[in-house]
Write a structure and sequence with these properties.
The chain is α/β, with parallel strands linked by helices. It contains 17 helices and 20 strands. It starts with a helix and ends with a helix. Keywords: Signal.
Length: about 475
Amino acid sequence: MELRSLVTALFALLFWTPQLAASRAGPEVLHRDVCIIGGGAAGTHAAIRLQQKSKSVTLIEKEALLGGHINTFLDPRTKAAFEYGVAVFNNVSLVRDYFDYLQVPLKSFTGWVPNATAVYADLARGNDLPGPTSNMSDFLPALNSYKAQLEKYPYLATGFHLEYPIPEDLLLPFGDFCKKYDTRAVAQYLFPSNGGYGNLLATPTLYLMKQSSMDQVQGILTNDAVNNAARGRNQALHEVARTRLEKNRNDVFVSSRITRVDRTGESGVVVHINTPRGKKAIRASKLVIAIPPTLSTLTPFMDLTNDEYVHFRQFNNSYLWAAVVKNSGIPTTASLMNLDPAAPLQIPAMPQIYGTTPTPIKDLHVVWYRSPHLVPDWEVKSHIEEDFNRLYGRGAEVVVLKNHSPYLLEVALDSVQAGFYDGLNRLQEKWDTFWTGAAWKTNDSTAIWKFNEEVLLPMILASLKGRG
């Protein structure tokens, strides 16, 4: 027995001691120019562009894939793919250049099925409806009227660099703005096409104009949107981006959790992470945060400054879900718009399904659901199935559900008027920290990439040059 114990101890000494020693030695330390937290549209684009500028980068993402609001559904039977998250991009040079650099082909997008039709229903009551009160003859004049108003505020195109006093029209609830400028038909269009508004007609016009920008208006007027349907799925863009970053000796850590961010040193920041490849410590000259700047997302790993805390605690947000639904009962080639005949402009109160679209897979539809307040995922799933079963009685089933919350970060109008966004912009570069994403621009990939190009990258590059 003593000999067996001795042999066991020697075996442990020979084969396990190096691993134990490694576990006690602390995390692997990586030295980089920039560390980016968040691998969605904002963070991935920033990483690629910094790589193009010959800067070393580490990109950290909590999910297993890069892409953020991009969700690609791959049918296990047919292997056909379609998007139930971000489906289209604006056809502008910035988008084309980004896709070209990553060698991901683009082509015009006219929908997942040819000759798609539309049906209308009051899902809350389970009734079919004839359609919205406006039609295309109403919509185009309304859109041109909206465009004329939007042209008054060119500064909305890049970040929240506002002019004071803020024009009264920008502070109006969008429903009142639509009455004033006869753009009601635009509101009925925006309801199913732009997700995330807890209450569209009550949302300040400022936020609607940020979301429904001039690029989007031009795309509607020219019917000119693009996606990477040439490869069949938008997720390909982020897969290629990850490969390109790793090939050029940059780091991409997915399925990774940030445990602590230290910003107290004189030589940049240190980001501590747990990854599938072990613990890492990223020593970077600059930190870019490309996730929603809310207290719930940041405080678990980051000590905020007083200015950061004061600003971030003021954000409110809506909630958005995207789902793929089987047996909805909607005709195979039709989209469904949810209406409430008794509501202003027939726009139903949320939480509720607000629209659907057909897909290349028979009897699968993409469904969007939004709410002004938090709803558990299981409850959203139940609501979706109940609504379709009430209308069609077909045994609807949510195949996959993706929570895109928090969505559309906003602050109270008195804070906007008091200069909230000027203070938010002044947070850039303090403590070697830079910020990007929807809260700094809007929930639109093209607009966020434009913010990166025109605001974020020049600041980071100038700061790195100053340090060097």
